[in-house]
TrEMBL record:
This is YqaJ viral recombinase domain-containing protein. It comes from the Eukaryota. PANTHER family: EXONUCLEASE, PHAGE-TYPE/RECB, C-TERMINAL DOMAIN-CONTAINING PROTEIN (PTHR46609), YQAJ VIRAL RECOMBINASE DOMAIN-CONTAINING PROTEIN (PTHR46609:SF8). Residues 6-91 form the YqaJ viral recombinase domain. It comes from Oedothorax gibbosus. Pfam families: YqaJ. Signal peptide: none annotated. One of its GO terms (biological process) is DNA repair.
């Protein structure tokens, strides 16, 4: 597990970026530490996988995929689109994405993807 210095999670409200006034975002939190700066926090607790263990998630059709033993949010899933929108609207460089079930918790730090945003923002407007 990575160590962070002066790590803090604070509540977040509703953000509107003047560059994209047609969009709004409300992350589950703002994370901050001395070593990584500020990022967003997005937590998902899907009911359909509420009782899955980490091992069972390998077999489930859900938002995550396992690549080389590491779980990762599928880049084609709606949650990934949501995370990229958060990052661009809130203007942060990373999002700590958390998938929680009653039996396990998976986390992934997702970086801002400017190319993805440029390709998809015209579709959403």
């Amino acid at each position: 597990m990575e160590k962070h210095f002066n790590f803090n999670v604070s509540t977040a409200g509703f953000f509107i970026n003047p560059e994209y006034p047609q969009f709004g975002a409300s992350p589950d939190g703002i994370v901050e530490c001395d070593c990584c700066g500020e990022g967003c926090l997005e937590i998902k607790c899907p009911f359909c996988i509420r009782d899955c263990t980490k091992e069972q998630l390998y077999d489930k059709e859900n938002c995550m995929e396992c690549i080389n033993g590491q779980f990762s949010l599928k880049r084609t899933h709606a949650y990934y689109y949501q995370v990229q929108a958060l990052l661009h609207i809130v203007n942060r460089q990373y999002c700590d994405f958390v998938l929680w079930t009653n039996n396990t918790m998976l986390t992934e730090r997702i970086s801002k993807d400017d190319d993805f945003w440029r390709q998809n923002v015209p579709i959403a407007t």
